[in-house]
Structures are given as structure tokens and as C-alpha cells.
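Please review this one.

:::
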Amino acid sequence: MPKRIAVAAVVLAAAAAAAAAFWWQGNQRADRGLPTLYGNVDIREVALGFRVGGRLVEMHYEEGDRVDAGALLAKLDDEPHREALRAAKARVAIAEARLDLVRAGSRPQEIERAEANVAEARAALRNAEQELARQRGLDERGLTAKSSVDQAAARADEAAARLQAAEEALALARAGFRDQEIAAAEAELELARAEAAIAATDLADTELHAPSAGTLITRIREPGAVLGAREPVYTLSLDEPVWIRAYVAEPDLGRIASGMPARVHTDAGRSYRAQVGFISPRAEFTPKAVETATARTDLVYRVRIVVTEPDSGLRQGMPVTVTFDDGAR
């Protein structure tokens, strides 16, 4: 009996130890809560330039100026592009006239002239045939030379050939241009219109407009400079989007998810509403720019935190702290 009591006591002690361990682990998990992330402000910057080259004549803003979307920032000398557009429009007019010509076919006066040529050639052939018949009759009576008959026959053949040529010319005049010629004229007009559209686009590209609202960080060139196509003139820091580039350790990866609300805190004591926008599927070593208490060699995952309502209090590269509300767990 004492032996059984001792065994029962051991079993109860083991069960109590297991329960205590389970309770301690649960408390440890509960204590960990949602992670606190450390990162830096990441604001998009855009190098702005013209799509065409030319001489820079106007620069309307200085470094540090804030601009709205669509604001005119700079301008090139547009006279060469205006002249190119005028030339392109003239080529369009020529191509349109050419197409109208081939579609309309021959003019009535040209057809009438071709008909008159046929009538003239037919009359000449009749005269030549009559002269040939007369010469042959004289030859049969021995009243003319053989050479005269041959000459009359040649003139008759020549008149017949001229009549055939006149009739073919009349048929062409009545038929107008071939389908292939009309198609070629249509293609020439389409090409001229495309070249005019390119010239118009080049002219519009002599003005540089802000693609989005933001702040001009650098003014790279000055009026009078001759620029190449796509050469930067300004650098624009965009107002939106403003992201926080942070990193989460692998043990905390399951505690955050895309769309989760967050708060971004600066060292100046300001706080901003945000949400998780992206979690990288690829692990990497902790970058040296991230100031956390974890070991530098630990694997982490990059997280993008999107600030909902950013303002000028968030600057490029600024270190910030990201927290999550326990209600968002």
C-alpha cells in the first residue's frame, strides 16, 4: 500500500510539472505580443527631363520649391520643332491631294482627248487601207512599181498600230488608277500623318511638367544649356507614396500580415497612421542601416509599411519605429 501511494504521488507531481510548463509557455507567448519594428522612411524620387533635345530657355522653380501635379517646370526653345511640324503638315496635304487624284481617276477632258486620238487614228487607218488597195489595183495592171505597194502596206500597218495604242490609252483613261496605286497613295498619306503626329508630340515635349505633387530636391541645369534627350533637369521628391522600409525577424513573421494597421513614430514624438503593404517572401541578413536589438546575422524579411496620411514631418532616410495595436493581432 505505501508503494502504491508513492507511485501515485510521483504521477501527480509529473502532471503538475507538465501543467506548470504549459502555463509558463503560454504566458511567454502572450507576453511576446506584436513585434516592434525599426526602419527608415523611403520616399520616391524622380529624375525629370525632356524626351527631346534642345536649348533650355526657361526654368521656373528653385531647389526646395513645392510643386503641384502638372506644374510647368521648364521649357526648351520650340522653334525647330514648330518648323518640323509645319513641314510634316505640308507633307500630309500633298499626300491627301495625291490620294484624291488617284481615287478620282482621269478627268473628263483627258478622256475626251483620248477618244479624239482614237477617232483620228481610225481615220488615218482607213486612208492608209484605201491607198494600199489603190496601189495594189495599179500593180495588177502594171501601172505602178512594186516598191509603191510595199510603202502603202507599211503605212497601213503603222496606222493600225497607232489605232491600237490610242484605243489602249482610252481604256486606261476610262478605267482610272489601279487598286495597287490607290493602296500605295493611302499608305503614303498614313505615313505622312504619323510623321505629323510625331512632330506634334516632339513639340509638346519641349515643355516639362511635374508628373505628381512633390518637392524639388535638385536643380541640375540652367537656361542656355543645350540638352540631350532624356537628360535630367530636376529631381522631384514625391509627396506620395511614403513608405517605411523595415525588417521583421523570422520568429515574428507570423504575427503580422498585409493590410494590418500600424503606427509610425518619429524621434520628434510625432505619430502617423499606416498599414502593412508588403512582406517580402525572401529572407535576407539584417542590413546594417537597421538599428535593432537583434543580432546582425539573424535572417529577417523586408516589410513595407505604407503611411496613410504623410506630411513634411517624414523625410527621406529618417529612422522611425513601427508599432502594432494588440487589437490587430
Observations:
- Residues 5-31 have pLDDT under 50 and may be disordered.
- Residues 108-140 form the longest helix (33 residues).
